Amino acid sequence: MNFKLSALTAIAAASVASAATTTVTAYDVAELEAIMSDAKTHLFQYMLLVYSGSLSFSDLPAGVLDVAMDAIDNKDYSSLLTEVDFAGVNSMVTALPWYSSRLLPEINSLYSKEQATATLL
Predict the structure, then answer these.
(1) 121: CB partners within 8 A, 6+ apart
(2) pLDDT of residue 109
(3) Which of 34, 64, 101, 121 is the most buried (most CB within 10 A)?
(4) What is the pLDDT of residue 76?
(5) Residue 63: left (phi > 0), alpha (psi -120 to 50), or beta?
(6) Which N-terminal residues, if any, form the signal peptide (predicted)?
(7) How many Å separate Cα 81 from the centre of its chain?
(8) 24 and 78 in contact (C-beta within 8 Å)?
(9) From residue 31, how far is each of 21, 51, 79 by CA, in Å?
(10) Alpha-carbon distance 105 to 48, whole Å?
(11) pTM of the entire predicted model
């Protein structure tokens, strides 16, 4: 969960509305981690979406900015996850042009690892 500023710039922008407190699932965490990792690896493609108007920083789901800021500072952001609008994260992720080719396989991989870890505990 250690992400650099440049990676999070693509996804971490002004999203300050409060999200309803909700139960966070392993799939939710996998989805958020996959998008953060993908943005780090493919920053230019995310920035092209912003510049074209296809992705607006102001439309990011609630709570994402707080998580991103803690990730940038290498802080544990797990306590902030209940404030993230994961329905919004899901909508954003599934709307990306590379969802099926890049994100979904990464989400499934991370989810499998989360499930394996949860099973061991």
Answers:
(1) none
(2) 94
(3) 64
(4) 87
(5) left
(6) 1-19
(7) 10
(8) no
(9) 18, 24, 17
(10) 22
(11) 0.72
Q: Whose structure tokens read 């979406």?
A: 49
The pLDDT assigned to 93 comes to: 93
Residue type (1 letter), 23: T
Query: Token pair for residue 101?
Result: 């080719």
82 three-class SS: helix
pLDDT (tens digit, 0 to 9) for every residue of the chain, 121 residues total? 444 434 444 444 323 333 344 688 889 999 999 988 898 899 899 889 989 998 887 888 999 888 888 887 888 888 888 999 999 999 999 999 999 999 999 999 999 987 777 655 4
